[in-house]
Amino acid sequence: MGAKVMERFPAGAPRGSWPAEEYAAALRAEGEPATVVMDLKSDAFLVVVPARDED
The whole model's pTM is what? Predict the structure, then answer.
């Protein structure tokens, strides 16, 4: 199973700011099963959704 990266956010957001979580919440409100994961190599938060089969 794969995942599609919808957006990436730098890990150094201002204190009290959670832009990746806010973006994922907006996607979930639209029905997308969005999740936030940390990419340690690039020091960024990724908002991902499960990859869909394009038949």
Answer: 0.84
